[in-house]
Write a structure and sequence with these properties.
- The chain has 321 residues and is α/β, with parallel strands linked by helices.
- Helix content is 35%, strand content 15%.
- It has twelve helices and 13 strands.
- The strands form two sheets. A seven-stranded parallel beta sheet has the order 8-7-6-9-10-11-12, sandwiched between helices. A six-stranded mixed beta sheet has the order 2-1-3-4-5-13, with helices on both faces.
- Helix 1 runs parallel beside helix 12 and helix 5 crosses helix 7.
- The radius of gyration is 21 Å and the shape is elongated.
- Bound molecules: 2-keto-D-gluconic acid.
- The site of 2-keto-D-gluconic acid has 9 residues, from loops.
């Protein structure tokens, strides 16, 4: 009988996920969730046939060269910008991701950030906690309207569409920018426009596009200057899509009203300016962080690995060629 393939799980996962994988793999895993230096990752991965990684694990040529037996990389994320697909393709390494299972939770989070930013929920809460609430006033903590305003969605994939669906309840005009036309645009009541028009017209801009070299700093000083001074910006996609330094400048100068951010250029490190500007809501990359969504992601990564081990088709492959 062939020995079981060797699997490395780089982060702590749910017990049921280990149980699902255990019959099929010889497992080495980081269930203490230690922070591995790069050299540890390379060393622990070196003799593995399969890797279960997350978005902070860079799968590049260096790692692939260190893992000559590697045949599959299953990432517990929908985003796969941390994986060099061309290099995986050249080496015959399959790649899978975790679409769908996190769509609704992540769309909910976009709305949590949009609402909190528009209505200054965090800013006013900090003020209240600091004991500064002496009396009520007509012009206290005035925020931006959401109901009936214009929403601009940049990136109209699964999550973008889920954000748009929610916007219908707020009777918003929906503009979107995407490489291709969304097949469900009529159903969503959304109109495809160029990025500049979206930035000019939208009262609230939500970024839901994948990160790549082409989308690096897609929102920089020029784009922020094109937005309405009353507008808000939400990023639940990836750090690097927004030029964080330019955003800090824009927030400080009042070129936009506020921002809600779940992702950052060098996370978990933050641009220091973000911690000093008041009109920004900051969350630590929790877009998919509901139990059902995170268990769903880890389980889907596991199902891809089980399919690999049993010679079945991967349920959610990422094209590597
Ligand atoms: C993950 C994400 O929590 O799926 C993604 O692409 O950004 C998040 O849902 C994170 O990437 C962990 O791998």
């Amino acid at each position: 009988m062939n020995p079981r393939p060797k699997l490395l799980i780089t982060r702590k996962v749910f017990p049921e996920v280990i149980e699902r994988l255990a019959p099929y793999f010889d497992i080495d895993s980081n269930q203490d969730d230690d922070e591995w230096p790069r050299a540890t990752l390379l060393a622990r991965a070196a003799d593995r046939d399969a890797l279960f990684v997350v978005a902070s694990d860079r799968v590049d040529r260096e790692l692939l060269a260190a893992c000559p037996r590697l045949r599959i990389v299953a990432t517990g994320s929908v985003g796969y910008n941390h994986i060099d697909l061309a290099a995986c393709g050249e080496r015959g390494v399959a790649v899978s991701n975790t679409p769908d299972v996190l769509t609704e939770a992540t769309a909910d989070m976009a709305w949590a950030l949009l609402m909190a930013t528009a209505r200054r929920v965090c800013e006013s809460e900090h003020w209240l906690r600091a004991g500064k609430w002496g009396r009520w006033a007509f012009d206290q903590w005035l925020g931006a309207d959401v109901y009936g305003t214009t929403l601009g969605i940049v990136g109209m994939g699964r999550i973008g569409s889920a954000v748009a669906r929610r916007a219908r309840g707020f009777e918003m005009k929906i503009l979107y920018h995407n490489r291709s036309r969304a097949p469900n645009e009529a159903e969503l009541g959304a109109r495809r426009v160029e990025l500049d028009e979206l930035l000019r017209e939208a009262d609230h801009v939500v970024l839901v596009l994948p990160y790549s070299a082409a989308t690096h700093h897609a929102i920089g000083a020029r784009e922020l200057a094109a937005m309405k001074p009353t507008a808000t910006l939400v990023n639940i996609a990836r750090g690097g899509i927004v030029d964080d330094a330019a955003l800090v400048d824009a927030l400080r100068a009042g070129r936009i009203a506020g921002a809600g951010l779940d992702v950052y250029e060098n996370e978990p490190a933050l641009h220091p300016g973000l911690l000093t500007v008041p009109n920004v809501v900051l969350t630590p990359h929790i877009g998919s962080a509901t139990r059902s969504s995170r268990v769903g992601m880890a389980m889907l990564a596991a199902e891809n690995l089980v399919a690999f081990a049993t010679g079945a088709a991967l349920p959610t492959p990422v094209a590597t060629a």
